[in-house]
Design goal:
By secondary structure, the protein is an all-alpha fold. It has 56 helices and 2 strands. Helices cover 61% and strands 0% of the residues.
């Protein structure tokens, strides 16, 4: 039907329904199909919007009822979005209000049922819509009309119940919910959603109305005598207490003081139904967090209600007993049937009808359905009283056991003919046998005749009482309660009939048979069972197991709920499984079976036969166990309880049998391994059933634990292995040390995924999961100790014998021959203590932990992967327990340098995760132990490599540098955050780390980049339009270069030269105009730096455009400062003059003649150029003659041949001469 409905086109089906005759069966079928197709159809809201117009003004019809039901479904119960349902409610609001006055009660009821949802949806929509007042006014009219139906008399009960539910929803909407907008539930509209300044929704008025309605509901609870209304109030208050926790106290106080006073005169079943609603509500409230403070009041109320109900039940029981007694007395006082009018007698004297059996003899009952035959059998069985049915069964068994005794005596007729008179016939037929037959002998002689049979004989003589016709009772209205039922069949039959019990002829005959029969039970013995061979035994057991297995399937669904509610409850299925398992595990006692065998003539043959029989028995047991194992493994997750019970029984059976027979072959470990092996063949990594199975085992063998360790390494079984070991640690204290040790060892596994899974498993027990947390802490610290330096393996002392070194060879031979090795020279000395041979930080070898996944000896230089195996657990624990960082820093100083470098790289993710504001890290940076400087520096570097350091961190490092003699590298991460004075003070110390290697050079370059401002492109150009340079905390390029020259002694000349070279390499900052400013500032210094002229030479070599500035300005100013008085600078001056010649000739002529002669003597290549320059420029002949005296009289060509000028300048020395 659903498939057909899904394929139906709604428009086509609607057209067919409208075209069908009105209110016909055809139209009803079409509308039913259309409704099924529309329930999940996307066009539901569109079609409802179209069809609601047909409801206005229409008379009662099938189509109208169908459209209204569809609208109720779409608004209240469909899967449409809230916006779609809100739009539909707004479109149908006016029509629904009009239907409240419809003449059809069912239409009014369905309409009222729509309004709880309509009111909530419209309120939610109108809270956000401030401009549409008209729907709100219409909604208020509908609310007033529906609330009148709650209190008005003579209202249909269904309509009143719907109105009560609407009133409860109005109370929910018109009270305040959660005030936080982030926590508000959009499906729970309430006053908290409405703005306080809403133009037409008054929050105060609605809240006051809601409070009055709630008071009205409480009054209704105490005043109404309608049980349906009371139950509706109770059921709706459960939702009220859940969504409005502030009203829980009011609800509870109202209920606990309620008593069924207004229900006086109502049937007991009605009162009990309302009381059950009260009990359910109170129990529900007591289990919620909101009702926790009121648990005491609720429990007291429930106790009082229980006492009240017990009293009412006792009163009802007494009333029923009194009614039955009164009915019995009325029946005894009624006139006999003989005095009835003669007009009724002919009905008793009709011709006899043939017995029913003759009419049904030819009927084929096999043609009837099985269910009908079953019902007929049950109905016929119910026609007999219980005593009569038991008697018939016993008579049948008696006749079958003793056929001769069971024969009916001649004077007794089993079934009297229908035409015989009722009273006299029974008297004559039963009196003779009773007097003629002696009482039974043996055990029955002491048993008096049963009183019911004597009563029946007396009653058979008296005329029957008149038949009282009883009105049929509707079984659905019968008041039956488990607590009131009493199993008293005779008394109950007497009370229900109200007359003496009639005597049945068959029962009379049966009583006679039972009284006259002699059953000698003293000599009775069951016949022996037939001996079965091995195959028959196996077949019988297999069939029994199959029946038990199939029976257990039927029991599981019925007991699933109870088993889920109480995990410790023993169900019927558990008992069947226990029976099945014990049939397998305790099938046969080998010793007993061997003893029952016939004895052999020869003792050896007897022993051999016993062994053969024992092996056969074991084989038979193993076949059954195989069958059980196969059955379990076919659905292990569904039959894990059976597997657990089986293993427990095997373990217990092995213990009992081992005490009786030491040669007993245990089955527990064998079949446990079978189950485990079978599970591994098709294991599901996400199935947690296997770990639960292992957890419930009475004993876990070592090979199972080993298997779990191996499973943790395999990707397909990793989750199962870790889950099982985790459960062992948490819930099996006896297995905790071994399982925990396996998990801890797996935290050092080389595979990253396995190692990570193990770390995540053990990390859950830190820091509060004792005693596991202490075990994890100790293991992690022992792994850390493995990384510290250890003493090398001691070498055997070599003793020189006859000029040869004899080490351990002879000693080993002596030991092999039983001789004691010679004592060590240090055996008796003061240095015999091995701890004295260890250096600081070294650990004795016996204290070093070892796992299967770590090398026995740590390889040096360190390998990153091995160090990570040692430290990943400790790093992971440090996120939860920062105290482990203290241990890392404390052990760091005793590690090899290669291990330290590896740790600096591996610790990066941990430090980034903790962050620069972590209190423990900041404390460690302030108080790190000696030897951990490089690790602290690494932490500081990680904090600052991707962002600026915080002010707290800068202050911390500055105080550290002032208090402790730290490496200058500590200043590098924070140097850019210092003010200019601190930069100037600390920069020389940073530059001094330059040692010619690349790493320090990169660090200094990064420092220069961070503390130097990039000059603008217009730097050095003279213009009046340039803005004034803002004072900055950073250094300008000239300031940095000047600082390097002024601090050259503090830095060191080699480091200063390297730093200046770094500046020259930063061509985007240190351009030619920058260098010109630097040289201009340095030349004005009172004491010129030693490296000044070397820098000038490097500047003009890099930027040739600076030659003019140097030759015209710089050299002249150096001459005026008498540069020749400083030999290192004078040497640089000479080299500079040769480098920029002939541009330097004009300035050189300003030198005194002695210094000029010294210069040309040291640089003869300059003579020719200077002579030529003098000859061209010299107007004063006397002065020219003086210069020519210095430069020599030789012609230029001869001079050039003697001392040719080099084509390229000589390279600058790396280490210029230092000042004396």
């Amino acid at each position: 039907m659903a498939a057909n409905a899904a394929a139906v086109d709604p428009l086509t089906q609607l057209s067919l329904a409208l075209a069908a005759p009105a209110d016909s069966k055809e139209q009803a079928d079409l509308l039913t199909t259309l409704r099924e197709s529309l329930e999940n159809h996307p066009s539901l809201s569109i079609l409802c919007s179209t069809l609601i117009k047909t409801l206005s003004g229409a008379g009662d019809s099938l189509l109208k009822r169908w459209v209204l039901d569809l609208l109720h479904f779409a608004i209240c119960r469909s899967g449409l979005s809230i916006d779609a349902r809100t739009q539909l409610a707004e479109q149908s609001l006016e029509i629904l209000v009009g239907l409240l006055n419809d003449g059809n009660v069912n239409t009014v009821k369905v309409t009222v049922q729509c309004f709880p949802t309509v009111y909530a949806l419209m309120f939610r929509s109108l809270c956000a819509n401030r401009n549409n007042r008209r729907p709100w006014d219409i909604l208020n009219q509908a609310k007033t009309r529906i609330l009148e139906l709650v209190w008005a008399p003579h209202v249909n009960n269904g309509v009143r119940l719907a109105a009560v539910k609407f009133m409860q929803r109005v109370i929910l909407v018109q009270t305040r919910g959660v005030s936080d907008p982030r926590l508000q539930d959009k499906d729970d509209p309430n006053l908290s959603m409405c703005p306080t300044d809403h133009p037409f929704i008054s929050i105060q008025a609605l809240e006051a109305e809601g409070s009055k309605l709630l008071e009205g509901v409480v009054r209704l609870l105490y005043s109404s005598n309608n049980p349906d209304v009371l139950s509706a109030v109770m059921n709706s208050w459960a939702n009220l207490t859940k969504k409005r926790p502030n009203l829980v106290e009011l609800v509870v106080s109202s209920i606990i003081h309620w008593t069924p006073v207004q229900l006086k005169g109502q049937p007991y079943s009605v009162v009990r139904s309302v009381e059950k609603s009260v009990k359910i509500l109170l129990t529900h409230v007591s289990r919620t967090p909101q009702g926790a403070p009121l648990v005491g009041l609720v429990q007291a109320a429930l106790h009082a209600q229980s006492s009240r109900m017990e009293q009412a039940a006792a009163e009802e029981k007494a009333r029923k007993a009194a009614a039955a007694e009164a009915s019995r007395k009325r029946a005894a006082a009624a006139p006999p049937v003989a005095e009835a009018p003669d007009s009724k007698r002919p009905k008793l004297e009709h011709a006899p009808t043939p017995p029913a059996g003759s009419a049904a003899a030819g009927f084929d009952f096999s043609s009837l359905p099985a269910t009908l035959v079953t019902d007929l059998i049950v109905a016929n069985l119910q026609a007999f009283t219980e005593n009569a049915l038991i008697g018939l069964v016993q008579a049948h068994r008696h006749k079958k056991a003793a056929g001769a005794v069971a024969a009916t005596p001649p004077g007794v007729a089993a079934t009297p003919p229908p035409s015989a008179p009722a009273g006299p016939a029974r008297a004559s037929s039963t009196a003779a046998p009773v007097t003629a037959t002696p009482p039974p002998t043996g055990p029955r002689a002491s048993i008096p005749p049963s009183e019911p049979r004597a009563d029946r004989r007396r009653k058979s003589i008296t005329p029957p009482a008149p038949v009282v016709k009883e009105e049929p009772v509707d079984p659905l209205k019968m008041d039956i309660d488990d607590e009131e039922m009493e199993y008293e069949p005779d008394k109950l039959n007497l009370e229900m009939s109200g007359e003496p019990e009639p005597v049945d002829e068959a029962e009379a005959a049966l009583d006679h048979d039972m009284d006259t029969a002699e059953l000698p039970l003293t000599d009775f013995k069951l016949p022996p069972a037939r001996e079965l061979d091995v195959d028959e035994r196996d077949e019988l057991l297999r069939k029994a197991i199959t029946r038990i297995r199939e029976g257990a399937k039927e029991l599981v669904p019925h007991e699933l709920a109870s088993d889920t509610a109480d995990g410790h409850r023993t169900t019927s299925a558990d008992m069947w499984m226990l029976l099945l398992v014990r049939m397998v595990t305790r099938l046969s006692d080998p010793a007993a079976d061997a003893g029952d065998a016939p004895e052999e003539q020869d003792g050896a043959k007897a022993e051999e036969g016993a062994l053969v029989r024992r092996s056969e028995i074991y084989e038979r047991q193993d076949r059954l166990r195989h069958a059980l194992c196969d059955y379990i493994m076919a659905d292990f997750s569904g039959r894990v309880r059976l597997a657990t019970m089986w293993m427990n029984e095997e373990w217990y059976n092995d213990r009992v049998r081992r005490q009786q027979d030491r040669d007993w072959l245990p089955n527990y470990e064998t079949w446990l391994n079978q189950v485990v092996a079978a599970y591994q063949a098709h294991a599901d990594n996400k199935d947690r059933t296997f770990s639960r199975f292992l957890l419930d085992l009475p004993q876990v063998p070592q090979d199972i634990l080993t298997m779990l360790r191996e499973s943790c390494v395999e990707p397909d079984r990793r989750q199962m292995g870790f889950a099982a070991l985790r459960e062992f640690v948490a819930q099996r204290p006896s297995l905790r040390p071994e399982a925990m040790n396996m998990l801890l060892e797996l935290t050092t596994h080389p595979d990253k995924i396995t190692r990570g899974a193990a770390i995540n498993t053990v990390k859950r027990w830190t820091p509060d999961g004792q005693p596991m947390a202490d075990m994890i802490r100790e293991f992690a610290l022992q792994l850390l100790r493995r990384l510290q330096s250890r003493p090398k393996a001691p070498k055997e002392d070599k003793v020189e014998v006859n000029g040869k070194e004899s080490a351990g060879e002879e000693g080993s031979k002596g030991v092999e021959h039983g001789q004691e090795p010679p004592p060590s020279p240090k055996a008796n000395g003061a240095g015999s203590d091995p701890d004295e041979n260890m250096e600081d930080g070294q650990l004795p070898p016996e204290d070093i932990i070892q796992t299967p996944y770590l090398p026995e000896q740590l390889e040096l230089p360190a390998v990153d992967s091995q160090i990570l195996q040692h430290l990943e657990l400790l790093f992971a624990l440090s996120t939860r327990l920062p105290e482990f960082l203290d241990e890392i820093f404390a052990a760091y100083g005793g590690m090899d340098i290669s291990v330290q470098e590896t740790i600096q790289q591996l610790i990066t993710p941990l430090i980034r995760a903790l962050g620069p504001s972590h209190g423990k890290l900041l404390t460690l940076l302030r108080t790190f132990p000696p030897g951990a400087d490089s690790l602290a520096l690494r932490v500081l570097t990680i904090f600052t490599e991707h962002g600026r350091p915080s002010a707290q961190l800068v202050a911390l490092v500055k105080s550290l540098v002032n208090e402790r003699d730290l490496d200058a590298r500590f200043l590098i991460p924070i140097i850019a955050e210092m003010d200019k004075a601190d930069i100037v003070r600390h920069l020389p110390r940073i530059v001094s780390i330059l040692n010619g290697t690349q790493e320090p050079k990169n660090l200094v370059r990064s420092v220069f980049s961070s503390i130097v401002t990039v000059p603008p492109e217009t730097f050095g150009k003279v213009t009046s339009n340039l803005p004034r340079v803002r004072q900055s905390e950073l250094l300008t390029p000239p300031e940095l270069m000047v600082l390097l020259h002024q601090s050259e002694k503090e830095i060191g000349l080699k480091s200063a030269i390297e730093a200046i070279g770094i500046c020259f390499s930063m061509t985007e900052i240190f351009r030619s105009e920058i260098l010109a400013v630097v040289m201009n500032q340095l030349v004005d210094e009172p004491n010129l730096p030693t490296l000044f002229l070397r820098t000038v030479i490097q500047a003009v070599t890099t930027y040739r455009q600076l030659v003019g500035f140097v030759s015209t300005t710089l050299l002249s100013r150096l001459i005026t400062k008498k540069i020749w008085t400083n030999p290192p600078l004078w040497e640089g001056f000479i080299r500079l003059a040769r480098l920029i010649a002939p541009a330097s000739f004009g300035a050189l002529l300003q030198l005194p003649k002695d210094q000029l002669r010294e210069l040309v003597d040291k640089q003869p290549s300059l003579k020719a150029g200077l002579r030529e320059h003098v000859m061209k420029k010299g107007a004063n002949k006397a002065r020219v003659a003086g210069y020519l005296d210095i430069f020599g009289e030789d012609d230029a060509s001869a001079s050039k041949e003697q001392t040719p000028a080099p084509a390229t300048p000589e390279p600058l020395p790396v280490n210029p001469p230092q000042a004396s």
